[in-house]
Amino acid sequence: QVQLVESGGGSVQAGGSLRLSCTASGYPDNNYRMGWFRQAPGKEREGVAAISPSGLTTRYAASVQGRFTISRDNAANTMYLQMNSLKPEDTAMYYCAAKESSVTSVNPGDYNHWGQGTQVIVSS
């Protein structure tokens, strides 16, 4: 049974930084893609970033390109999201997700395993 656990959310002022972590368990190997997604109150869940099993391929939403960096440490079964230059519009619940299919995608519908989420609040 695959389980994903996020950590690292919190409150920060605009311009600040946070680092999110997501630890996966239940996979027999590292051959799965992972992604970060977020959902603000009253809005649909949107893709933020995604990463291939090797970490060599990444995808970003246009709204976070250049500010956020996704990475993973396969030895630790952990994925990270370094968020810099945070803006109030980045405020949301952030979720990590994983999937076994072969496309590195930021489309939430492509993912079949989800964590419980970690809250990020950016104040102006």
Task: Tell me what the structure shows.
With 124 residues, the chain is mainly β. It is built from no helices and 11 strands. The strands form 2 sheets. Strands 2, 4, 5, 6, 9, 10 and 11 form a 7-stranded mixed sheet that branches. It has a 4-stranded antiparallel sheet with strand order 1-3-8-7, with no helix packed on it. The N and C termini lie far apart (40 Å).
Task: Please give a quick description of this structure.
This protein is mainly beta.
Show unreliable segments: none
The coarse silhouette is globular
- Which bin fits the share of residues in helices? under 10%
How big a fraction of the residues is strand? over 45%
Beta strand count:
11
- Helix-strand category: mainly beta
What value does the average pLDDT take? 96
What can be said about the biggest beta sheet?
A: 7 strands, mixed
Order of helices and strands: EEEEEEEEEEE
Individual helix count: 0
Radius of gyration: 13 Å
Distance linking N and C termini: 40 Å
Key phrases:
single chain, 124 residues, mainly beta, 7-stranded mixed beta sheet, 4-stranded antiparallel beta sheet
SSE layout and pairing:
Layout (H helix, E strand, L loop, with lengths): L2 E5 L2 E4 L4 E8 L7 E7 L6 E6 L6 E3 L7 E6 L4 E6 L8 E8 L13 E2 L3 E6 L1
Parallel strand pairs: 2-11
Antiparallel strand pairs: 1-3, 3-8, 4-5, 4-9, 5-6, 7-8, 9-10, 9-11
